[in-house]
Structures are given as C-alpha cells and as structure tokens.
Amino acid sequence: MNPLLPLTALATLLIDQATKLYVLGVLDLDRALVYPVFSPWLEFRMAWNEGMNFGLLSSRGQLVRWFLILLALAISVWMWRWAARSPANRAMQVFAGLLVGGAIGNVVDRLLYGAVADFLNMSAPWFNNPFSFNVADIAIFVGALGLVLVSGRDKTP
C-alpha cells in the first residue's frame, strides 16, 4: 500500500485536532465566542455544529449524531478501499487522505463534544458570513474536489 494515504490522513487529523485544542483550550473560544485574527477577513468565531454542512439536521438529538458518526466512518472506509486500488496515483492518495482525515477529525469532535467544533470565519467589510468551519472541513472540501479532478485522469476514453 502507498503510505501517502495513511500519512496524509493522520497529518490532517492531527492538525485539525491541534487547532481545535488551541482555540478551545488556550483561547477559551467556547467562552469568548469571538477572537479577531485579521478582522473582518478572518476571525475565530465559535460555532457548535450538531448537524451536517451549514447546520443541516442540527437539533435532531442523539440519533442524528450517531447516524453522522456512522456515515462518516462508512465513507472513510469506502474511500480508503477505493483509493487503495490505485496505489500508484500519488495525487489520489493525498486527496483521499485529506478527505478521510477530515472526516475522522469531525467524528472525533462528535464523540468528544457531541458536536463539531467550527471556529474559522471569513467575512468582508461589506459581507458578514454567518457560518464558521474548521480545518477538517477544508480538508474534506479540498480532498473531494481533488478526487473529482484526478480520479478519471488515468483512463483512456
């Protein structure tokens, strides 16, 4: 097996969890709620996401929480097995690792806190973005987009 997938997944998971430990443990963002970094362009704005993207399915209780945990784990296992079939495609291994590491990072949040810790907020002077996200969300997005771009590249029409 190509080591890029597990190494990328582990690095993504560690970076995601380290950033969350920093904003929760050092900055006490769960109490302060907002920490201006380069306001309004970048702020740490605490948001506990109990649902999916943009809070979909939030406030539905433990059933949704465990459903989302199992769904993320199932997708991670499927993605790992799918990417393992193309070990020579280094880009695919990295993008799959980003996706898996990000998904597992959000699973860890749901297990530890009952919700995903979102804290990155990017706005502009003329636009106040109400949504926050985290490093895992970035990794999932970049991984999924990258897989779309590179997954069919090796096949001839």
Topology summary:
Elements: H1 4-26, H2 29-32, E1 34-38, E2 42-49, H3 62-84, H4 90-113, E3 116-121, H5 135-150
Antiparallel strand pairs: 1-2, 2-3
What does this protein structure show overall?
57% of the residues lie in helices and 12% in strands. The protein is α+β, with helices and mostly antiparallel strands and 157 residues long. It has one domain. Strands 1-2-3 form a 3-stranded antiparallel β-sheet. Strand 1 and strand 2 form a beta hairpin. The longest helix has 24 residues, at 90-113. The radius of gyration is 17 Å and the shape is globular.
Q: What's the short story on this structure?
A:
The chain is of the alpha+beta class. The chain has five helices and three strands, in the order H-H-E-E-H-H-E-H. It has one domain.
Q: Quick one: overall form?
A: globular
Major β-sheet profile: 3 strands, antiparallel
Strand arrangement in the largest pleated sheet: 1-2-3
Q: Count every beta strand, where a strand is a DSSP E run of 2 or more residues.
A: 3
What percentage of amino acids are in beta strands? Answer: 5-15%
Compute the separation of the termini in Å: 27 Å
Low-confidence stretches: none
Radius of gyration: 17 Å
